[in-house]
Design goal:
The protein is an alpha/beta fold. Helices cover about 50% and strands about 15% of the residues.
Length: about 300
């Protein structure tokens, strides 16, 4: 997703304990955060959320979350491979659980189980992560968790009977939270409703049944969320998406052929000249299939791209 304060990121910040207990399926005592950027020059990357969770049995685990909507050229499996590698190098002694939450129909083909093959066609590198397609998740299942803060996600799930589910979700959320947290959760609830009719129904119920008028904070966050959503949709398919594919190409070559830093720099320079999602996707496919760096270099040459020094 674009580097904006997206509603779902804010929601995780508001409900860290609930998200950790849900995704880890364990009793959680506390959750802390640390800087999300994984600095590895010259390519620092920024994860969506990294939570450090203390479980009821005293163990500390790391929960890495990524959120992905439609309209992105960035291949999630290779992004997750890079994130997993960086996290393992940065936090070597902390067990990690990674999860991708897909929104709005994204992630149809992602199983969360991935393997790269060596030149002999044998498994060489394998990685996995939890996949949750919110748009396929039954809203009733979310209600059954009895975690009020998570119900702000209802609008991203599959709601078969909104006239029953939405009032139940709002009742649980309102009764299970209070003060500023309740106000902010209700705002995110409305922002994350992709169906305008459901959003209107929820807004009506909030005002009619709970006497909670829209406050200045709610208006500000809603207006901000709508603007961010429009900007995010444009950014995902353009500059940010193309740069992410370039990074994925280099990372694939690094994993497969153990490139030196000077070799990586030469590929980054050559790929910087490539514009457009289709050409970059073709090069990514070549990076995955080429038998050796020379074969990939031939693909670059055929596309009119020269490596530095040539």
């Amino acid at each position: 997703m674009a580097a904006t304060d997206h509603p779902i990121k804010r929601l995780v910040t508001l409900a860290q304990l609930d998200f950790a207990a849900w995704l880890l399926d364990a009793s959680v005592v506390s959750v802390t955060t640390r800087q999300g950027e994984l600095t590895a020059m010259p390519d620092p990357i920024d994860t969506d959320q990294v939570l450090f969770v203390t479980l009821a049995d005293g163990r500390e685990v790391m929960l890495h979350l990524e959120f992905q909507g439609p309209g992105s050229n960035r291949p999630m499996p290779l992004r997750m491979l890079e994130y997993t590698t960086r996290l393992a190098l940065t936090y070597r002694n902390i067990p990690t659980h990674s999860a991708v939450l897909y929104l709005g129909g994204a992630g149809v083909h992602d199983t969360g189980q991935h393997t790269l093959l060596n030149a002999k066609g044998q498994p060489w590198v394998a990685w996995n992560y939890q996949v949750i397609r919110l748009w396929q998740l039954d809203a009733a299942a979310l209600l059954a968790l009895n975690r009020p803060a998570l119900l702000a996600l209802i609008g991203q799930t599959r709601i078969e009977r909104p006239e029953e589910v939405v009032p139940q979700a709002l009742a649980q959320l309102v009764q299970g939270t209070s003060g500023e947290q309740r106000e902010r959760l209700l705002t995110e609830f409305l922002l994350l409703c992709t169906d305008e009719e459901i959003a209107a129904m929820a807004e009506h119920i909030i005002t009619r049944d709970y006497g909670l008028p829209e406050t200045p904070m709610m208006r500000k966050l809603r207006e901000q969320g709508r603007a961010e959503g429009r900007a995010e949709g444009r950014a995902e398919g353009r500059a940010e998406g193309m740069e992410a594919v370039r990074q994925a190409i280099v990372q694939t070559l690094v994993v497969r052929f153990a490139l030196t830093e000077p070799q990586q720099a030469r590929y980054r320079t050559a790929l910087a000249a490539v514009q457009g999602g289709a050409p970059l996707q073709a090069l990514l496919e070549s990076a995955l299939r080429s038998a050796d760096p020379a074969a990939f270099d031939a693909t670059l040459a055929a596309a009119g791209l020269l490596l530095a020094g040539e």
